[in-house]
Input
Amino acid sequence: MARIRKSYRVIANPMELPVLPEPLGLTVTFDDLPGGRSQAFSFEGFSRFPQMAAEIALGFRIHGIGLSPPTRAGIHHSMLKGWLAFLVDPAAGVHGITSMGELDDAHLRRFIQWLDQRPLALSSRFGRWSATKQILRCLQRHRPDIVGPSLALPFNPFPRRNANARHREGLTQDELDAVLTACRADIDASWRLFQHGLNACATVDRAAIVAAPDLRSLKLRELGVLLTVLRERFGSIIPLQRSMVVHGSDTIRLQLAIAHHGGVDIVARYLHATMHTLIPYMIAIGAQSFANPEALRLLRRDCLTDHPLLDGRVVMTWYKGRATRHQRRSFLKSSSFGVPALIDRMLLLTAPLIPHVPAHERDHLFLVGQVMASRSVTQVPYYLIPKYLVAFVQRHNLVRGDGSPLPLTLSALRVTGLQLSHKALGFNIASTQALANHVSPETTLLYVDAPVQRSARQDVIAKLQARFVEAVRRGELDDRPTLATNLADPSLSMPDATASGFICADPLSGVAPGQRKGRLCTAWLGCFTCPNAVIPLDASSFARLMVMRNALQDARPRMSIERWGVLYAPKLAILENDILPRFPGDIVAAGTRLMETAQPALQLE
Output
């Protein structure tokens, strides 16, 4: 039988692209959320530009199909705050544009200039430009009849948007310890209350309570009876006062019994997780897992699995929406305050709420029953978390060193964990990056490059450099192989391995690029970037470095620009920007006087 070959021929007439939607009452809907829900975005703000509104909505619909709901919302918001605000601003100087096809390069340059004039952070300007660029690029690709392919989209008119970003502020070790101590106290108290409710229900005759014709025949002042009534007749959810009326005129006795046992807020904690119960668990789990706040809030009930290789450990898995991938950390099972134990307790505390939450939220861990203004049951709302974090700080009187309230947030827990881990890992940025699951080390630096960590890292480097200098000055390298055994010319000695004011800790180690171990380093002027270089802070070293700096500057006009840029410009930049500024003022003054008697530098070619 002949083999059937797959055809890679491109179809000459592809399927028709979607037509433009109606301009009036324009709404783009995505029906791909869990539980059959939809996400809708209105473009009625562009009503003054109906044709352009239809074209932008079409590009948004095509581009947004493969995006997450939060990303869609961000692009829609940036378009309204960016491109739409630009069109309707009289000071922007844009008149007569009715469709995307009328745009030219001058309009885009004017838009970029307009963004530069806004009182916005650089990252916000970049975000609003990026949203507009994504829609334009999508239309260029899929509907070139709307936006011409010749329209030039600048690659990045707002470079280094995070260069001036404020580094994330975390907690100190003492502050974190105080927070976790407060969490343990709240968790133990709420767990004892929940267990007490379970034990009270186990001591009463459940069948008799269920069969009772009305509440007047029951002793509701007994906690076990009250909780059993609430579990069996109301599904563990304390009803609102106005809702109790439909269950009979004797519900006033139920209200009085709830008040007798501490009120709705206390009685609810016997039955299920409330916001006061849940917040300490979120803090403790977030502080140990370093999970992002939104990923922590959306943690699933099946997030724990046994470790495939190590007994006694489990793996916690969560989904980071912004990275569009799962992240994992392993924990010991044995810790009473560890993540596995806390999640097991949270599963029991939220189990009574599962029948009451929407179907698409039943697989989430942090479910909560509201007991104040309403009795809604849902996964923990993001807008309530800051309010209850502030209440947690006030309840435990958590303060900073200056007496101000502790600025506790879920995002601060991730920053704190990474900063403390960075210190424990010896300030190794690669190890911290792997721990944080970051794609780029630049992202990790935004977390760990705080003033305290930067100072501690500099102290570690200074101690290592001091040990190098001491080892060289004490002659501890004398037990290493002599140069005579490794060189064809035995007359060469250790001083010949120095260059431009440096002392090499081991010129035979071969650590410099292009060198071999056991052979004298030949990378002249490579000492500027070599990890073996030791620069003594004395006047003679400064004088030799200044002589070399002058020689590099004098050589610039004598050679071609390309040769200068490749060979000598990087060395001069390191010398002027990093090495020479480190010398104290008194050494600079003494070294300047020694420059006249210093040995001249070699001729640069």
In short: The radius of gyration is 34 Å. The CA atoms of residues 108 and 266 lie 59 Å apart. The first strand starts at residue 27 and ends at 30. Confidence is low (pLDDT under 50) at residues 10-17, 478-499.
